[in-house]
Design a protein that fits this description.
Number of domains: 2
Strand content: 15-25%
């Protein structure tokens, strides 16, 4: 079996990490894979090439029509059985190519459905949502919002994010250090890192708690970084109590040195950073957005607060900071949850069931090597709707 992925970018992000996991799993199962990308020279390009996967740039021209024709030309050279998008804004290229070539096609929803549509504009958003015959979403809220936009539940499938739990694991032993709050995410406004900084300041000044903060993530909005730095300086956090670490290639040491992972976003799909931190034995403190409620069990593996509840965020963080035994127990449960539900070892079974929906019955025999892997429960939007009813 041959699968061709189409990605919008290979920058240092969660969607791209999940793409790497999928390509790696498919290669290990003997599936032929290649990648077409609208961008080039980004963080994940070399790691993906190291898997033996060819990466072809198809974004030479800014015209969407020219890019579609380039994608079609590449696919005709060596027609795959299936073409799959990894980014919402690449869905139209995949859907149109699949229809024109008569092959299976899968689109992607990587964020909340409403946010995806809004970012791509009224026309582009709806085309990317409606053109694919099948859409793989990494959060249930993304699926429900797609249904609210008129997408048939039968066209939606839940493909959860996965984590390498052998790589991301708790540190051995304990090291005395200042208690560290870690926020992971791109420096963009929707991550709302101002909430993290303000909460850190209140923990130190109002509650007199000896904590420090780290922010790890590439800078995509330099003006916003300057705003965040000014906020932190005004709260007396710089340079001793808050560090902006920039993009970090290997996050494992940071997770192992931190005590609590904090997510303060306005929009998310299923945050990779939370899964990695939880696999590393950290409790999560997160806003109630996207797929967060699917992975954080409030009061058991962390705390969830409304995105506008600034007071609730500070109080929940203070509880985690003060209760060392409780914090560690939450971290232990968090790792157990990720191992059971989101381990990378589960991915082949997820993909086998997804591809069975996208490929004609005559091709299902090609999925045997994937399907023989340990099964993991997958829920379609139809099943989710019945469960809610």
């Amino acid at each position: 079996m041959n699968v061709c992925f189409v990605a919008g970018t290979l920058e240092h992000g969660g969607a791209e990490r999940q793409l790497f996991h999928m390509l790696q799993a498919l290669c290990q199962c003997g599936v032929g894979v290649r990648l077409l990308c609208l961008d080039r020279g980004k963080f994940w390009e070399e790691p993906i090439r190291s898997l033996g996967v060819s990466v072809t740039w198809v974004g030479q021209h800014p015209s969407r029509l020219a890019r579609l024709l380039r994608v079609l030309r590449e696919l005709r050279v060596d027609p795959p059985d299936l073409v799959q998008s990894q980014h919402f804004f690449a869905n139209a290229y995949v859907a149109l190519s699949a229809r024109l070539l008569g092959i299976g096609g899968i689109g992607a929803i990587r964020n909340e459905g409403a946010a995806e549509v809004q970012k791509n504009g009224p026309l582009g958003g709806r085309l990317n949502l409606r053109l694919p015959r099948l859409l793989a979403a990494n959060s249930r809220i993304g699926m429900w919002q797609a249904i609210e936009f008129g997408v048939s539940p039968a066209r939606l499938y839940f493909l959860p994010n996965v984590v390498d739990t052998q790589h991301f694991k708790p540190a051995e032993g304990t090291v005395k250090r200042p208690l560290t709050l870690l926020a992971v995410g791109r420096i963009v406004k929707e991550k709302r890192l101002d909430r993290f900084i303000t909460a850190l300041g209140r923990l130190r000044t109002e509650l007199r708690l000896d904590v420090r903060g780290w922010i790890a993530g590439p800078v995509q909005d330099r003006h916003h970084l300057q705003e965040l730095e000014a906020l932190a300086a005004g709260l007396g956090l710089l340079p001793a109590h808050l560090r902006f670490l920039g993009g970090v290639a290997n996050m494992r040491p940071l997770y192992q040195q931190a005590d609590i992972c904090v997510l303060t976003s306005d929009f998310e799909g299923t945050p990779n950073a939370l899964l990695e931190a939880m696999a590393s034995g950290l409790p999560a403190m997160a806003t109630n957005v996207g797929g967060v409620p699917d992975i954080v069990r409030h009061g058991r593996t962390g705390f969830i607060v409304d995105r506008q509840d600034k007071e609730g965020l500070v109080l929940a963080l203070a509880e985690l900071v003060k209760d060392c035994p409780g914090r560690r127990e939450m971290g232990r449960r968090a790792r157990e949850f990720v191992q059971a539900e989101h381990s990378v070892e589960r991915l082949p079974a997820y993909l086998a069931k997804l591809y069975a929906l996208a490929l004609p019955a005559r091709c299902h025999g090609q999925l045997k090597r994937l399907g023989d892997k340990p099964a993991l429960r997958l829920e379609s939007a139809v099943q989710l709707r019945r469960a809610q009813a």
